[in-house]
Amino acid sequence: MRRAALLAALTVLAACGGGGGGGGDDSAAGYSVSGTLSVSANLVVDSDTNDPNQTRIANDDSAQAQPIAATSQVMGTVNVPRAGADGASHAAGDPSDFFRVTLAAGQTLQLDFTADTAANDLDLYVYRRVGDADVLVGSSTGSSLSECVRVTEPGEYVVQVEAYDGASLYNLRIAAAGAGGSCANATSSVAARRLVPGQLIAGLAEGSGRVRAAGALVSAQPLSLLKGRVAPGRLGLMALADDEKSRRRGLLALAGADEATLRAARRPAWMDRLSPDSRLQVETLQYAKRLAASGAFDYVTVNRPLHATALVGSFPPDDPRYALQRWHYEQIALPAAMDALVALSPQPSQRPIVAVLDTGIVADHPDLAGQITAGYDFVQDAASAGDGNGLDADPDDFRAADSQPSFHGTHVAGTVAAATYNGTGVAGVAPMAQVMPIRVLGKGGEGTFYDILQGLRYAAGLANDSASVPARRADVANLSLGASGVACDSASATLIAQVRAQGTMIVAAAGNESDRDSGRVAAVDYPANCAGVLAVTATDAQRGVAYYANGGDELALAAPGGDMRVATTGSGLPDGIYSTLATFDAGGVRTPTYGQYQGSSMATPHVAAVLALMRWVHPAITPEQVDALLQAGELSDDAGATGHDSQYGWGIVDAAKAVRAAIALKNGGWAPGIQGVVEAQPSALDFGTTTSSLEFTLRVTAPTDETVGAVGDDSAAVSVAPVAVDAAGLGRYRVTVDRSGLAAGVYTPQITVMTSRRTLTLPLSIQKLDATSTPDIGPIYVLVYDATGDKVLKQAMLRASGGVYRYRIDGLDAASVTVLAGSDYDNDGVVCSSGEACGAYPVLGVSLTPVPLGADRSGLDFLLSAVGSGNAEAASRAASRKR
């Protein structure tokens, strides 16, 4: 598979999700490339992966638990015997990895994997040592691609990643206190229980055809009915047998074990260290999963609480990956906006529609499936469309890996309106909105303006080539695409005016052609440079303009776009925008997942979704009224020069201000029930192992007379000072950490803000490593490609030395090359699979950047980070990166 480049050109429009690079035509032979691969200090590798090149150390039970730090991100593999690729653990299996870690209250353990859940399933267990036994204090045993447990008490824990079925790569991320999202699974005290050991609830739906299968299974299993009935329309409470051998044999039978295994009925060795009560609790959880998977029942549970999805609610939501979105949603004041929406009575009922004109959408993504309204595919060139035809009513993205999809549109759509408050995946800025997917970009993320024009007309309910219009036109059209060096012509201006006259607001990406580090700022791309279009530039996690972001007088707003060259948010991942994506499994099947991109493409849907929030509050608000509010400073938090400037436009979009403005406009200038408070953004700071200085901003969520008094800290290692603060104490503050007097360990001090009404606390997380420890994430494979043909020219295996990986590859005969490096922990011959370490020079973005060769090239340094729950660009296309 050749990599798909989303590059802007003069005659085509392309997605704006990441910086591209240059190239060269001069031929060269025999040149070398060299550099250093750095590793985030909190990145850890499972000590017994399936890669036979790793120096393996068993971590198969709590006695062998691998020690890790409290803000680690672990990359690893687990597998039951004979599952997964051939390798170090294939035959005998490596079903469990154990880790020992000291955690603070409020930290969250997040387990992610991407193997097909039809055949592979991972679970998460948390224990504490009491006397000579391990006591279960937390678990997450669902059947999705994500598990989590929130820690409620400080202390030392043993964490188990278990392969319940099959094999998979995984990421185990430990979020700092206050930095995680909401996780419904919390640890309990050693004396408490989260379930009744040995008891299960099973039932059948009305009219169920499973009656005979359920009866046969109950008869064959060591189960007894305590209450109720296992019958159509009924639930029964069942008990497991007291005899452990019988229970073990029953579990093995449900798992399809052979006769010899059934006769032996031995429990796994790691269970020997559990207390009898904890062993029964684990077996009860496993039984519930096996019975549910058997297909004999319509309902099986250990009586966990259930909840319904909501359209609005308070933040943080219970979506487990929200922790990876926290920085960019807090930057736009989304939590305060949601509080204002929750206060509305009655709640609005008309869901706003955001048309996403892009590469299409992964319609079966679990965080998008219920959020989609009818769209259209306007890619009229059959070869570019890649779906066997041109114009059609199916805007679904590519389903074949050889089509080189980036899933750019799916990422944009998730930022706009991913299902929220559903305990799954990520959150959207406007979860009450619906996405109208309009496919206008085909192979390589490229399309023509004609196709985009037709898509824009469709979104606005105007006549178009499809000979159809949507049942209700879009409220907002999101164009995360553009072309550089193109002026807005009169025909484009006329169309935009027609679309706005329909009531559809247009938001477009400013582009990514700048290199602000060297002082070069590119002009705003087309069509964002057209009058009537809200042009959006990108900010980084520190509220600065992103290094790649275009600028100019046409800018309307700035919004988070990220900078994946650095990792400053405490998540352990690069500072990208986290959202919905997809990848391909080993069999080439498209699989929904999540990950990061950067770019003004990612900034734009933040703004489009904020406009959707305004339409939710006030469905009749017009594009002209939105323009007036924008110019009055009612939609943004001013940044840069006062008022409008060419760097930020009118400032960074502020969802809370925008919602209040819409409420006030609807009510004739009165915004009911909104009393502002002082808040900190971000709401927590994680300094990790090396960061020594970070900033936070004190701001108000709405007009208020609350003012800031004293701002202080509670640690000799921490100091806080104002950077730019007004008379009310609002503004930027810098927190500095001095680790010199700290012993190795994790510290959780806090900043205290005394206001005229209350005390506000900002939790910090600081880690100091043992001076002798150096990052080592196992074997890393460097691949050098011919940039023109994507052919592997040379490759090498590296081992860490002094905490870094150094490479030099000679004898390269190509005009230009690209450099990528990654791990192969599952030993499937593919680097950079989801769950592994990966990086590329200079940054792993939407495309790999060519390095011209006319001489030896040194200093090609870059960062290795985890993909999957980290940089999903690699996850979405690295299935061809065979070593």
From TrEMBL:
Entry keyword annotation includes Protease: yes
Keywords per UniProt: Hydrolase, Protease, Serine protease
Domain Peptidase C-terminal archaeal/bacterial stretches: 96-162
GO molecular function: serine-type endopeptidase activity
Keyword NADP included in the entry's annotation: no
Family: Belongs to the peptidase S8 family.
Protein name: Peptidase S8A family protein
